[in-house]
Amino acid sequence: MDPPSQGRARGRARGRTFPSEQHASSTPVPGAVPEQLPLVSTHGPGRGRGRGPIFPQAGPSTSAPHEVKYKPKMVFTTKCIENKKGTSGTPLDLYSNFFEVSKLPNYSFYQYCVTFEPEVDRLGERRALLRMNSDRLKGYLFDGTSLFSNIQYQSDPFVLFAQNNNKENVQISLKRTAQLDNTSSNYNQLLNIIANKCLQLMGLTRLGRNYYDPKARVLIHEFGLELWPGYITSIRQHESEVLMCSAITWKVLRHDTVFQAMENAFRQHGHNYMQPLKQAILGVVVMTHYNNRTYRIDDIDFDANPMTKFSLKDDSKSTFVEYYKKRYNITITNLNQPLLVTKVRGTAPGTTETIYLVPELCRLTGLTDEMRGNYQLMASLAKFTRVEPQKRIDSLLNFGRRLVEKREIENELSKWNMSFSPQLIKMQGRELPMETIIQGDASNPRRYESGRNVDWTAKLRSNPLLVGVKMERWIAIVPRPIQQESMSFIGLILQAARGMFMGMNDPLVHYIDNDNVGTYLDEIEKVLSRTVPDILLCMVSTNRADRYAAIKKKCCVERAVPTQVVTKRSMSNRSAMSIATKISIQMNCKVGGAPWSCHNPMKGVMVCGFDATHDSINKSRSYGAFVASLNDEFSKYFSIPFAHSRGCDISNNMATAFETALVKFRKHNDGCLPSRIFMYRDGVGDGQIDYVLNIEVEQIKATLEKHYRGTNYKFAFVIVSKRINTKFFTSGKQNPPPGTVVDDQVTWPERYDFFLVSQSVRQGTVSPTSYNVIFDNTGLDPDKMQRFTYKLTHLYYNWSGTIKVPAPVQYAHKLSELIGQHLHNEPQRDLDERLYYL
């Protein structure tokens, strides 16, 4: 249904009383309503972008694209290689979602720092005060703190005056801070501000960092959702041209408010609702419907409510109820609801400010885990968000035409002597050759090509596994209500395993009356107190997160036994035989086996992967996972997770894990150190590359020098970025084939980088992965580095096809995700040479 209109009473909600940790305060609460009132500043880091919180916070972080206060340091990594362009493979004509900035400002700009006296907190009010002086300022751009103009004003500081809504005089001072040309580090910032002005002139609405079109919203009534289409744009210097990347995006908005989520938590948990509510709400992004602004929720203040008073600018007192009625003509209906707390970047560098929000005025955005598990809901969203290449290209070309044909945009761009090409850029990529998959043991290997669609499932079923571990003693726990489905499915697992020549005995079956958490844990404890099975197969009726977490904690943290959990839905699926095949392979991997490998001419190589996940319960805690190969086939791995506080240095843990992996490798390879080492690192934003290069890489190099007794080692460190906006299309407006590599034109001139499309997708537009080689002395040329990286995407054992990233990175992701979302503790080290987290 449509969201309730502003000021509408919500019946029973009016009388709901939420208990607080103490009595609600009637004294002023630090903080204020967003954009309206003085905010409380606290010295400390602002909110970073991307995965930044797992890194030490150093200096101001990056804000929204059109309000950039801090530009990440440009890190030059092209020194790793003289020429980063490869030549191998079949040439391929491609288009990409970039528009050339065909005309650029050919004069200098001046950058001014703008201050207001008395201080003005609201961005809209700052802009309005500047507009009152537009005749003296002439053409300018303002991002909230910095003003850009091609005019050098006659005095420094340049002082202006304007009157605010209260008829008070405000002094505006412009202090010149820099002169910019196309070689200046802040030049891209200026171009992006101009581009975002164009998006505003298109009638788009800013939500968070991006711009959306609420007029083109799509309503999905059956799930209480709506989708806003929008664009992500970014301008920068690429190899030979300044280009604007333009990507289509969607914002998911929910019709329910945070207050409704509070009501649900109260109904389910009564007076103990506070902790479950925090777990559900903290970190969620909400939108205030009275001004369409988005905020990430950092806390809930149960001691404050809409009747709490705070100080206005004139030092008078107001409640939130009074303020919203006067300012927006909104009637807050529930007077007992606790207030939401969010931290935003302060006006002074390196500070944060606290804002209080009223829950019933905040719409929830995004999807919960429960929603993501709803197949019907996700299918409904995919109809709109999973855009086919042809339709995506048409949308992008329409966007390009609007940039050049809309009169208001043309006038704005002409002020800055700037223009865009309406056509997508054309380039040449290369299609790498297909990889050779190897199954069977060394005495009788079976070799075949991965195929055009890089899916070798059919061939996998009819060939023996690379390493099949005999499972002589394994146990299945079966709830009696799903006994029939469970036993039939166990039969399919055995059939699939024997078809791939796996040695798998019939399991010892333990029946339980139900699959409640307590019942399951009691039975597991009974089983493991008598014997240690090769693996424990747990059949469950539904995909309950608490039961899954309890089983994994019992077997990974308290004990050291691999487990496989199978739901009734999987057992009853029409593709049950295919699922059983995949599960039998998973089980084989968890006990030390391996289904296949790829042809690898380099011997003695160790590949490593790292990723990190934030703890879903303890928001101040994160878990990193380091994974390293131990054999030439890249089929056996050593895994080591470690916990760290968010914002703390993880380089010592990384170096320690790396050193432990070296020791393990020597143990498995007759005392020999690796001939070459490749480290693939996920979870690094642009602003963190300098830290990774100068701290993490240097500590690993120090470890290598200790073990190799000098610099006689061969090592490469590659940053993997899969959450990127770049897309590629063939000249026939289709997805590029798996193995497509692009290392020119849209890459960055200061980097040794390339894009790789390693997957084949059946629906939507395929996404490439970006690889940035920040250190490399392995001696491999770009062709071999690209080919080797592509090879590693074939070796993830949860899928008989290629994946988006190298297998060690995905293994690290799976391990850190298991711990951060379910275990919340480090698992037993007896499991560290098994892929128990598949």
Q: What would a concise description of this structure say?
A:
The chain contains 20 helices and 37 strands. By secondary structure, the chain is an alpha+beta fold.
Name its key features:
838 residues, alpha+beta, paz domain, Rossmann fold, 19-stranded mixed sheet, 5-stranded antiparallel sheet, globular, disordered N terminus
Question: Could you walk me through the main structural features you see in this protein, from its secondary elements to its overall organization?
Answer:
By secondary structure, this protein is α+β, with helices and mostly antiparallel strands. Among the domains are: 12-59 and 258-284 and 298-363, Beta Complex (paz domain), CATH 2.170.260; 108-180; 468-590, 3-Layer(aba) Sandwich (Rossmann fold); 597-824, Nucleotidyltransferase, domain 5, CATH 3.30.420. The protein has 20 helices and 37 strands. The strands form 6 sheets. It has a 19-stranded mixed sheet that branches. The two termini are 40 Å apart. It holds the Pfam family Piwi. Keywords: Cytoplasm, Developmental protein, Differentiation, RNA-binding, RNA-mediated gene silencing. Residues 257-366 form the PAZ domain.
